[in-house]
Amino acid sequence: MAATRIPTRITPQYLENAALHYLERFAASSAGLRRVLLRKVDRSVAHWGGERADHLAAVDAVIVKLTNLGYLNDQAFAEMKTRSLHRQGKGSRAIRATLAAKGVDSELAEQAMETLTEEHAQPDLAAAIKLARKRRLGPFRLPEKRAEMRAKDMAALARAGFDFDTARRVIDADSVDGLEELLTS
């Protein structure tokens, strides 16, 4: 049986090193990094004793320092995550929900969505078509299966964060060429 790892005692230098190591590996928002650091604090306090509140100022200081150095930028994170989720075929509602779960301020999320709208005339429609192509939904499905799978295809697009009108336009398109015409019009 493997021995459990003893958590490191929390110091300001340890928190800064842990934050830098985390940011080397993952893009994160300020709130996301705060959650990671607080988990480390909680593990250390549970093992070594002490109060969580004693380390909150150090966590906040690390967040402020990394933000001032440019390692943490919530606006850049929101825009990057928005583009990434759009490329995956996620709808605007799903993108907003993901950004909220990552701790991005709703104002920054809206700015990122506006940037996406500037880049793509109809971002939801483009993402829905991309998802339909990837998952072989609607006009990308075999013609003999389209009618019987319509409800499931609509549900798949709804779960991906698309509104009913967008899902209906994609699933009920006559052909793949019809989808391309929808996108360019």
Automatic annotation (TrEMBL):
GO biological process: regulation of DNA repair
GO terms under cellular component: cytoplasm
Residue intervals of the RecX second three-helical domain: 73-113
One Pfam entry name: RecX_HTH2
Main location: cytoplasm
Top-level lineage group: Bacteria
Keyword S-adenosyl-L-methionine annotated: no
Keyword Amino-acid biosynthesis in record: no
Entry protein name: Regulatory protein RecX
PANTHER family recorded: REGULATORY PROTEIN RECX FAMILY PROTEIN (PTHR33602)
Subcellular location as annotated: Cytoplasm
Biological role stated in the UniProt entry: Modulates RecA activity.
Organism: Magnetospirillum gryphiswaldense
Keywords: Cytoplasm
Family the entry assigns: Belongs to the RecX family.
